[in-house]
User: Fold these one by one.
Assistant:
Number 1:
Amino acid sequence: MSATPRMPTAEEVEAYRRDGVVVLRGAVPPEWLERVEPAVQRAWEGDGTADLSEMADGGAGGSGRFRAGTDHWRTDPDAKAFALESPLAGIAAALMGSRSVWLWEDSFLIKAPGTAEDTRFHQDLPYFHLTGTQLATFWAPLDVVTAQTGALRFVKGSHLWGREFTPTMFVSDDPITGAPGEAVPQIDLDGPDVMCVDMEPGDLSIHDARTLHGAGPNTSSTQWRRAVSVRYCGDDVRVAFRPGLPVSPFQVVLTEGEALSDNASTPQVWPRGA
């Protein structure tokens, strides 16, 4: 769909593996953002997202809403093209050092102007029925993102702590009932290891699924914060069903302990045409 994609440099690969997060500036060609943006709009206007503001501590307090959904690629052709055919899969292979890459899921994360809810610090891995080290979350904004509008914050190096934290409801500290793990520690937002990332459309943040991260509220009265997130898996990932977490109809066909393979649940996206 475009010219030669912008692949990570050796320094960026090193940063990803050392810090558990890296930001690639200008990595998403404009035509791919134009392709996926209508899918995000359709999800917002239809029933493709859930209202997370309703689950926040004390209820929604702002004029805006925080809405999110998953698995849009299964029903929307533009979301499917972005997850399966964009340059993201090749970047995932390079960063993770994996011969092959499989798609796990995508999600749309939308904070309208005036959204009071922050996204609590969490790891992605405890929400997945997976285990392994080669799992990466890609986050591509459709709008300019700053600390005011809900920029992502990462705890650098936390993917190497060897700890797994209990999944919560994202907008509160309430744990998912029955899910294993320890409570997320208090994070000093001004600490030396906390990285706050301002981004523009075309930029791409990629973090290890074990990296602690969160995001602030969108306190702007005019600026949206829309983002597309895609989660990819590498060679060492195995199926591991987790207590307390729902199992989607697409995951019931998976077998505990198996490696991922090219099927309707986990399509192989790299190498192309494999």
Note: DSSP finds four helices and 14 strands in the chain.
Number 2:
Amino acid sequence: MFDAGDCYWATINRHWYFIISDPRQNPSQIVQVNTTTLIPDAGSHDPYNDRSCILYAGEHPTITHTSCIYYWGTQIGSINDLARRLERHEIKPGDPASPEMLEKMRQGALITEHIIPLAADILIEQGLV
């Protein structure tokens, strides 16, 4: 686990997260984004309903209804952080994203107005966006 596209369930906040950076390039700064339900009538600038990356039911086993990536809540952690969380059962592995879905999440990170600057810098530095 802990490769680009890997997915995990965070037991504390009950959301699915995806690793969108390349942990092999930088194991101490891993960019992780989570999915959340898209609320269609929310404002287009609402960070909880970011339309930069919309995911549809069936794109991934964890996506059962129209969702989006919550870039405002992007997390940056290390391989060691994730390993500790896994050991403490704070996260549970899921199926990895397809290459197409991973690319879609990365491209959303490039166009969103809500991603934290450090996360964008990591993805750019790694040549992923």
Note: The two ends are 22 Å apart (CA to CA).
Number 3:
Amino acid sequence: MAHLLKVLVLIVSASAAALGQMAAPVSKMIYRDYEGTLISNNEFVDIRMANFHYKDATIVNTLADGSTEFRLQKIPQEGMAAPAFTLKTVDGKTLSLDALKGKVVVLNFWFIGCAICRAHKPKLNELKARFGEKDDVVFLAMSPDPKSDVKDFVKKERFDYLQAPDAQPSMKPFHFSGYPKNIVINKRGEIVYWRSTITAWDKFESVIRGELAID
């Protein structure tokens, strides 16, 4: 009988401990941008990776309820004037940033040997397709690869952005490190979105639509 009572006590104690663990508050993760605005986990990852060669300056706080708050630093390129550029597309047309003033410019920096760049292509094609034939937004891909290589590549693998080969001179003033790079330039020629890899595609699209809505 005494043995049975001990077993019952152990079972009750274990059950109480398990219930206690179940009732314990679950620690939350809260993500905010540099202004304190709540952002998604995907956008948090994209911002942290926007300049992956920079030292991470994320501020981490533990709140009173046990939640962990991550506060990101500002992406330094956003708000800056985009460097001027003049280049030729794969079909020989000349484009310049000055001539594109008044349009939203969506840039992608890539090269043929970049596996991540190639993996992004289907999503970039989908993104562009959602804007139809709007004449106030330009989707432009710059690559350091020579014209003949880019021309052959896009014949085999669809990439719906305007293609600018031999573009290293135009890309260099952006002072970026690593590929890919995805940039949105507003109608006034300012960088408003600067990312490397993309997981928050909804944010990418919303930035473009927001800039198109501004006269």
Note: The chain is about 35% helix and 20% strand.
Number 4:
Amino acid sequence: MPPRRLYFDNAATSWPKPESVYRAVDRFQREVGAAAGRGAYAASLEADRIVAAARRHMARLLGSESSRQIVFANSGTDSLNLALHGWLRPGDHVVTTAAEHNSVLRPLGELAVRRQIGVTRVACDSAGLVDPDDIRRALRPATRLVAIVHASNVTGAIQPAEEIGQVVRSHGAAFLIDAAQTIGHLPISVNSLNADFLAAPAHKGLLGPLGTGLLYIRAGRESELLSFRQGGTGTRSQDDRQPDSLPDKYEAGNLNMPGLAGLAAAVEFLEQEGVAAIAAREAALADRLQAGLQEIIGVTVYGPADSSRRVGVASINIRGYDPQEAATLLDCSFGIQVRGGLHCAPAMHERLGTLATGGTVRFSLGAFNSESDVDAAIAGVATLARNAID
């Protein structure tokens, strides 16, 4: 019999989902099945209600002034591309960091060639943390945007986003936050962060289905944020230009209705459980995991030592093993499912000194991990490390 599945890849996508999410997706597929905003019959109106509920729950979770400021997308990557391609103009300057995911680095690389934007990548320390003063020093008169990842998907380091937001606000630039590793894991207030844009996938800490994402847009910024794609919205169909109003300006084509039905249920679950309570449980598990891994001879642990400065992500290397090999052995031998590699964040690995050696083995916790999961993971790593020594 194969070993019990111990899932530690929540930074990629959360699993399992709440039972209510499975039920909501299944109910939509079997009982509703209609597009939103495309009809006046009962099933279509029910689809409208589901979208409105998902938007309302998300706005409340983020402290958004209005649910209309929540735009749905296909993924966190899609949301980031909307913000970056829609906001930046030829000759603009952007400040970002070495901790970023390729979902920011690659669009900026494309825009540097296509629109001749300037990009300054601020360094981070060996734990993955950025100094707000370095952001301040990188600002230029032409800086139109500062884009940071809220927490590193490699080390778990939580950036001082509130301080950075104050720096950006005083300069007059816009502030984009990639919340892929924090939304649903930590309480977030877009106003406290001074966020102009906050992008996130719905399938990670939010516990929703794959194929869904969102972009928060601060009121007024939509007048300058160009639409990423154009097409049908079910509104103002007589016009040959995309509507200017939120959220229609950015939601051309049919929405992922099964995904949004699941997302509405997922965020309702988070509201009932309390994100702060989930954050406390994950922090306790992260401390237990970090402490156990640090005691194993032959294991290197990366990231902040201070648990208040990281989310539930622990990256390690085990002496004698390539990261991909270690990840495969953990799965085959113990049912421990982790990710090995660069985690789409090459600049972060360059800073850690792990780029040339294939990256790290990453454990990432979620809302449904337990102490017994963590203890089994520590034991599995200890066995691999001991076998390498023997």
Note: The first helix runs from residue 19 to 32.
